[in-house]
Amino acid sequence: MLMPKDFYHKLRRRSSFIKPYSHFIQHEKPKRKHQIKFDSASPYPPHFDWREKGVVTPVKSQFNCGSCWAFAAIGTVETSYAIAHGELRNLSEQELLDCDLANNACNGGDDDKAFRFIHEHGLMREEDYPYVAQRQNSCLLNEYSGPTTKLDLAYFIASDENAMLEWLVNFGPINVGINVPPDMKLYKGGVYTPSPWDCKNNILGTHALNIMGYGTWEDGQKYWIVKNSWGPKYGIEDGYVYMARGENSCGIEDEPIGILC
């Protein structure tokens, strides 16, 4: 299930939290949490994938619930936390559905509000707060006394391929939103390159995802390695889709966000 057409992007554009000079969302370049050295003269390697570093949880399924916003936000936090602290935690999307009342659970949500919630309240582990694909009547976080996982800062990355590459390689995954043409549901491999017309005029709804890496196909087509939340049987490599890079395909490079934990 997707969020309604343009719902995700409209929410982001009117956000009161992700904006210039916010006390939380920073625009100046952060200090690096880690340093990756490359052998080539290029500032970026031809291929990069955070999965190869052991800091990405398996693809999950949102099922028939418009909760992609929660899965994308948490996917970003899980990997960013593992990069910073050396521990990969499987975190609870259900907590956001039940406890983040600023968002609309299965009816869509805004990563701006989700990141604010995670910053202020933290996240429980999936095993302590399992996913049921609907908003429940109570928030278990209020009854939980164990440790939670929080994020420190979120950054509005420039809508530019090189800026996104710099963030991805030096800091971690990127939270993005796209419009979804019908044929994306049928993706089985290769680089997904929908037409600009379909991305604008023929969409099922809007969707939030994670960029976990990038590469170049054998025919020279550049792509982003994108973690989806449609289950491990979708697409390729247990739930991933390779989306065209440098073309702002379906808005994937419009409003990228990265975080630090």
TrEMBL record:
What is a single Pfam family found in this protein's UniProt entry? Peptidase_C1
Biological process annotations from GO? proteolysis
The stretch of residues making up the signal peptide is none
Residue span(s) of domain Peptidase C1A papain C-terminal:
44-260
- InterPro entries annotated for this entry? Papain-like_cys_pep_sf (IPR038765), Pept_cys_AS (IPR000169), Pept_his_AS (IPR025660), Peptidase_C1A (IPR013128), Peptidase_C1A_C (IPR000668), Peptidase_C1A_papain-like (IPR039417)
Q: Name one GO molecular function term.
A: cysteine-type peptidase activity
Family annotation (PANTHER family): CYSTEINE PROTEASE FAMILY C1-RELATED
The UniProt entry's sequence similarity note says:
Belongs to the peptidase C1 family.
Q: What is this protein called?
A: Cathepsin L-like cysteine proteinase
